[in-house]
Amino acid sequence: MKDIMLKITGKTVRQDEGNEKHEDIMEFVTAGQLYHRGSTTFIKYPESELSGLEGCTTSLIITKDKVKMKRSGRPLAADTEMEFKKGERFYGMYETPYGPVGMELLTNDVTGLEDAGEGRQKLSIDYHISLHGLMESRNKLELEITHQNEGVMQ
Q1: How far apart are CA 65 and CA 59, in angstroms?
Q2: Is 0.85 surpassed by the pTM of this model?
Q3: pLDDT of residue 139
């Protein structure tokens, strides 16, 4: 298992006269761990106060065309799982500190781990999410991974 640094950027995307307009940008840097098993990559990191999920751990299982995300720990009452695969819908429950909410994801695009140069890798997910009765939005999630012994994240 390798120690890594993760720069995680989440964006809510709105359309404004046909152009993308990013709102509600959340970005944080955290330490995590990464390991490979065959062609699958596993990443694990602690959530921060910025995400509203301090005390939770997020685990990612990354294959060539799919990303599974699992969050567990306090303040969630139960684990939350999400699956992102281009063009596919995923139905599940989204655990919040206030209880579970029905969730539907439609993944627009997923780029598996790509070389970003200088010892870095990048993962991008573009998806629509609907939390039944609460909100609907299009989001983009980007993870930039730096292996701690291979450079400093800017």
Answers
A1: 17
A2: no
A3: 94
Q: Which long-range contacts (CB under 8 A, 24 or more apart) does 58-66 make?
A: 60/123, 60/143, 62/112, 62/113, 62/123, 63/39, 63/112, 64/39, 64/112, 65/110, 65/112, 66/110
Q: Supply the pLDDT for residue 20.
A: 64
Residue 153 maps to a domain: no
Q: Is residue 154 part of a domain?
A: no
- Does residue 87 form part of some domain? yes
Q: What is the CATH number of the domain that holds 89?
A: 2.40.128.20
Q: Does residue 35 sit within a domain?
A: yes
| pLDDT at res. 82 | 94
Helices vs. strands in the chain: H and E counts, helices first: 0, 10
pLDDT along the chain (154 residues), means of 10: 92 73 83 93 85 80 93 73 96 79 94 81 94 86 82 42
Could you give the number of structural domains in the chain? Answer: 1
Residue 44 bridge partners (DSSP): 33, 59
Containing structural domain, residue 69: 2-147
